[in-house]
Amino acid sequence: MASLLDINLFGLFGQLLVGLINGSFYALLSLGLAIIFGLLKIINFAHGALYMLGAFLAWMALQYFGINYWVAIIVVPIIVAAIGILIERILLRPISNEDHLYSLLLTFGVGLIFQGVFTHIFGSSGLSYKIPPELKGGFKLPFMYLPTYRGWIIFVSLLVCGLTWYMIEKTKLGAYLRAGTEDPKLMQAFGINVPLIVTLTFGFGVGLAGLAGVLAAPIYSVSPYMGSNLLIVVFAIVVIGGMGSIGGAIITGLIMGILEGLTKYFYPEASTTIIFVVMVIVLLIKPAGLFGKEN
After folding, report:
1. Alpha-carbon distance 266 to 42, whole Å?
2. Residue 193 to residues 38, 96, 210: CA-CA distances in angstroms?
3. Helices 226-241 and 246-266: crossing angle, nearest 10°?
């Protein structure tokens, strides 16, 4: 355990950077989950598999078709969103009036199918994806070295999270989304196509997971298990922030990533459990989560 008297600023800021990068992924993935649950009341346990799918699609696009990173970062989230739309239309819509447990179990099964198929085809070992030449190198800061690609991840994640929050909370489209899911019969009476809103919202939520997968491909091993390793952590973050809270998911994801980085520096043994410890404490004090609304 690191003493306060022998803090290495270079090492500390390095871990803070790692925490901020992880927090950016947590925020992006948690945002997708929060949108799907908050607006649609669907507990999407296939979210980690769709994140993995985004990374694999970027890898396959480069390996088999020569499609570079810059095209993949636009096209792959759209493809993943389209797959999410098919999942919602074919599998989830028929059970939309059933208990939430059914959608949880169904999406959990879909995630396992994706994971099993990719394990069978590519094996369980990780595959590498090169950082695009434009984002190689880095910047020398006073207490640390900032790789350009890591800075790019933070920038893109914060930009997408901020724009998504603004769209849902501050625009007329967001108002239609919220109203259409809270009182669908009333919105249909006004001529709003509520089933289409549900489908597009689900697609957008899983599209964010696909985007996170593309961003992760150059710095993490692309493997069938990369999503399952993150899924439980991301769900814990959504619970801490408040199930369905859009802003809570973003803020909590970033804070938990930084807290995890600090824990890795001061007490590495607790770094893999600190988020779950925080979750237990928050649930005991405020069961609705830090930003959630009490029923």
Report:
1. 38
2. 19, 16, 26
3. 110
Largest CA distance in the chain: 66
Residue 201 CB partners (closer than 8 Å, separation 6+): 35, 36, 39, 40, 177, 181
CA end-to-end span of the chain: 41
pTM for this predicted structure: 0.91
- Dihedral Cα 122, 117, 80, 58, nearest 10 deg: 0
For 186-232, the pLDDT digits (tens) are: 666 767 777 888 888 899 999 999 999 999 999 988 999 999 878 89
CB-based contact 208:29 (threshold 8 Å): yes
Q: What is the C-alpha separation between 152 and 140, in angstroms, rounded?
A: 15
C-alpha span between 164 and 246 (Å, rounded): 9
How does DSSP classify residue 175? H
* CB-based burial, 268-287: b 16+ in 10 Å, e otherwise: eeebeebbeebbeebeeeee
Looking at this protein, which amino acid is placed at residue 225?
A: Y
Query: In the beta sheet, which residues pair with residue 139?
Result: 146
